[in-house]
Amino acid sequence: MVELFKAFLFGIVEGITEWLPISSTGHMILLDEFVKLDVSKDFYSMFEVVIQLGAIMAVVVIYWHRIWPFRLAKANGIGAPQGLWRFIDKETFIMWVKIFIACLPAGIIGVKFNDTFEKLFYNPVCVALALIIFGVAFIWIETIHKGSRPKINSIAELSYYTVLMIGFFQLIAAVFPGTSRSGATILGALLLGVSRTVAAEFTFFLAIPVMFGAAVFKLAKFGLVFSSMEMWIMVVGLITAFVSSIVVIKFLMQYIKKHDFKIFGWYRIILGILVLAYFWLLK
Length: 283
Hints:
Layout: H1 2-17, H2 24-34, H3 41-50, H4 52-62, H5 64-67, H6 90-112, H7 114-121, H8 124-144, H9 160-175, H10 181-191, H11 196-222, H12 228-255, H13 262-281
Helix pairs in contact: 1-2, 1-12, 3-11, 4-11, 4-12, 6-9, 6-11, 8-10, 8-13, 9-10, 10-11
């Protein structure tokens, strides 16, 4: 029961920090320092990535009507879509093409050098510095954009160049743990003139193939042989990540309609300083 409660905590932290631009990696490192799961190092390395599937499912459930491209065919008539577009929603299909393009930098470079990046940068000091630097960046970008109107106010308005640039910002998060995948893509989108709500939504949709691919990669690397306790730990983590993600995604979308991202920038800076203080000065 103690290990299942720990898995419950990890799932909640994953669900909350995956979608807020505050770095799930940084929080997982801190949580693992104080609440260690009684599992092997290899299992934990796989577990902290695979429970992201629960967070992904929250996006799928909330935005199903936006991300599912297939439609029932309609009878032909005046103005009715013809051919392929009778079965596939054109706007949704194009959105997925944009998501695929945005995935290319992390998919090509991030996956190839994933182990190297983890060895070089997956440590408390690098994570803390990434938290602080991107925290400052959020405060800076929101300050210079205060009062200005965004140039892009819907996913349909995103150009292929824009989504590719967002993809390179996502690559930064793949290289430097603590940057936050959602934080990097949202910040990149804001710099490119995308509205806060569109930046957040595109980040949610972009996470589906990226996080699914990362989870499958880790699971395949670990193998499908689990003890009964490991299986229960995985199930509890997935469910709690899913439920907490549902709550957090809805909260974030309501919050950014009236507020900016500065509070998350300040939070990142404070957390980064605490991480440095704990791992660098006190240990």
